Amino acid sequence: MLFGRLITAMVTPFDDNLRVDYAAVERLLDHLFATGTDSVVVAGTTGESPTLSKEEKLELFRFVVEKVRGRGKVIAGTGGNNTAEAVKLTQLAEEAGVDGILSVVPYYNKPSQEGLYQHFRAIAESTRLPIMLYNIPGRTGVNLSAETVVRLSAIDNIVAVKESSGNLSQMATIIEQTPDDFLLYSGDDYLTLPALAIGAVGVVSVASHVVGREIKEMMEAFFAGDVTHAAALHRKLLPLFEGLFMAPNPVPVKAALNMMGIPVGGVRLPLVPLDENQRQALAKLLPRR
């Protein structure tokens, strides 16, 4: 499988002046690959892509490609709501040596399904890299329909979708109607196990920053046929999965990493840190190491 089962949508570490902290990026990569991550998404929305400049994104792509050194795949977040700009960033990411592209549904514009199809087709035609579509209607304001995903799956290098619609019926339709080699990943940690049960292959995870080993164990148990153990792990992890979204992502997961002794700094405006009540609630959910 090209990207593996556990893909981490990686946060972007910042220093005290909210500049990208490359030493912290390297330490975070070491942590992720040591705890079960197969591939990382760099400069996705969990990586605060709306507040990263194009230059910062490209430097991150180059740096992570160099530091990963064959331990996994590097997927560049190059999506946007300006098709021409998304095409250009995708091409520059390919030049930087990444292994794949994560392309989010255009936000705010609210394009039609035909507009979405043409947007993603233009991006696919601009690169030889494999592309994962990213559907998250709660953030973008528009749903990439199952029918449009099926239509896009006929394009050779559109190979997967990260589904964050929360709609298991839509996921099932996509899995049923796309080719066997087209992959669906859950985009929500709390739906990983239900999604696997209907044919998803893995998850693009936020919680894997904190409980990567446990998520990997849950998926391996499911695919080994030990559904009872997988379900028990799911239930155990569910409060953390939900707690990591008590505030806009990635505010809670960055706070969790800092609490765990993996410094990643703060968040850029318009995001703000957790308040003290939220910090205390989150701390109670973190695993004891």
SSE order and pairing:
Layout: E1 6-9, H1 22-34, E2 39-42, H2 54-68, E3 73-77, H3 83-96, E4 100-104, H4 113-125, E5 131-135, H5 137-140, H6 146-152, E6 158-163, H7 168-177, E7 183-186, H8 192-197, E8 202-205, H9 208-223, H10 227-243, H11 251-259, H12 276-285
Helix pairs in contact: 1-2, 2-3, 3-4, 4-6, 6-7, 9-10
Would you mind describing this structure in some detail?
This protein has 289 residues and is α/β, with parallel strands linked by helices. Helix content is 46%, strand content 13%. The protein is built from twelve helices and eight strands. It has an eight-stranded parallel β-barrel with strand order 1-2-3-4-5-6-7-8, surrounded by five helices. α7 (168-177) links the parallel β6 (158-163) and β7 (183-186). It is globular and about 45 Å long.
